[in-house]
Design goal:
Pseudouridine synthase; 15 strands; PsdUridine_synth_RsuA/RluA; four-stranded antiparallel β-sheet; 7 helices; eleven-stranded mixed β-sheet; alpha+beta; 28% strand; Structural Genomics Hypothetical 15.5 Kd Protein In mrcA-pckA Intergenic Region, Chain A; 322 residues; elongated
Length: 322
């Protein structure tokens, strides 16, 4: 139990406003729950969130220690008040989220815990769909990931069974993932298959392409088709036949059409006139194509989910409809 004594500086404010500052990891929904359960009291009596604190009051909090400790990465969801989750589709087993460009999916090397998975867990926790106290061995998890500056569909499993099935299906390539991107120039031919070997350089955080297999390289295959072009830009749909790091960015650059805004595989000279600082790439379409039975997720077989509101498409190709 934690107890706070209200001083002159803290008096005159509502209890809920005081708790937002005193216990920042306590969400509004949980605060109201604990008020009903009498785990939050004022002067050892049941109270309401709107109670106006007075000097000399004492606030008793019968809460778990994690609300007072700095959250670990796996508990970062507890400090999120308003989850930023754009839901494309959700049912009892899975959630498809439209990740915004700029958000990381998991904590990166800088220790950033303001991640997509933390926001999804906060969303499910606050909605009552997931209670970590009821399933100590499982937490909602992501089944795939995309780069920080790439937007689009990310799959989250809400149950351990769904996580197991989806991991197997991704491994067996029983999902069809399509991306929209804007590239400089006009691909020649307008559609085709790019196939070579990709090796990742961990120090440079970049990949290199090779015509023949070299140590550490993996097969990379991308099918692309040009949807429309104008001026010096083209809108291209890419289908990932393999899922390698930076695959689309490196592949399109290899045919002389780097992505708009991509400074790593493109050039500042090309990007500067447009003022774009992040690659124009979006994982906009996901289709489940199960070759083998998917158990509890078999109902998803053959279904396609798409993101239709893609900012860079509306900006440069406003007449195109995904």
């Amino acid at each position: 139990m934690r107890e706070y004594y209200i001083t002159k500086n803290d008096s005159g404010q509502r209890l809920n406003k005081f708790l937002e500052k005193a216990v920042p990891l306590l969400s509004g929904g949980m605060m109201h729950k604990y008020l009903r359960l009498k785990r939050i009291k004022v002067n050892n009596k049941r109270t309401e969130a709107a109670y106006k604190l007075a000097e000399g009051d004492s606030v008793q909090l019968y809460l778990n220690d994690e609300y007072f400790d700095a959250p670990k990465e796996e508990e970062a969801f507890r400090r999120i008040k308003t989850p930023r989750v754009r839901v494309v589709y959700e049912d009892e087993h899975i959630l498809l989220a439209d990740k915004a460009p700029g958000m990381v999916v998991h904590a990166d090397e800088h220790g950033d815990t303001d991640t997509l998975i933390a926001h999804i867990q906060a969303y499910l926790f606050q909605s009552g769909a997931w209670n970590p106290d009821d399933a100590a061995s499982f937490a909602p998890a992501l089944c795939n990931r995309i780069d920080r500056n790439t937007g689009g569909i990310v799959i989250a499993a809400k149950t351990a069974e769904a996580l197991r099935i989806l991991n197997d299906k991704i491994k067996d390539r029983e999902m069809e993932k399509r991306y929209l991107c804007i590239v400089h120039g006009r691909p020649k031919p307008p559609e085709g298959l790019i196939e070579n070997y990709l090796r990742r350089d961990e120090k440079r955080k970049q990949v290199t392409l090779h015509r023949t297999r070299v140590p550490g390289a993996k097969t990379a295959r991308t099918r692309y088709r040009t949807l429309t072009s104008h001026d010096r830009l083209s809108l291209v749909e890419c289908e990932l036949l393999t899922g390698r790091t930076h695959q689309i960015r490196a592949h399109m650059a290899s045919i002389g059409c780097p992505l708009l805004g991509d400074g790593k595989y493109g050039t500042n000279e090309l990007n500067r006139p447009y003022g774009e600082t992040g690659q124009a790439l979006y994982a906009y379409s996901l289709t489940f194509r199960f070759a083998q039975d998917a158990g509890a997720l078999q109902y998803l077989n053959g279904k396609t989910f798409k993101v239709k509101d893609i900012p860079f498409v509306k900006k440069y190709f406003p007449n195109f409809k995904p």
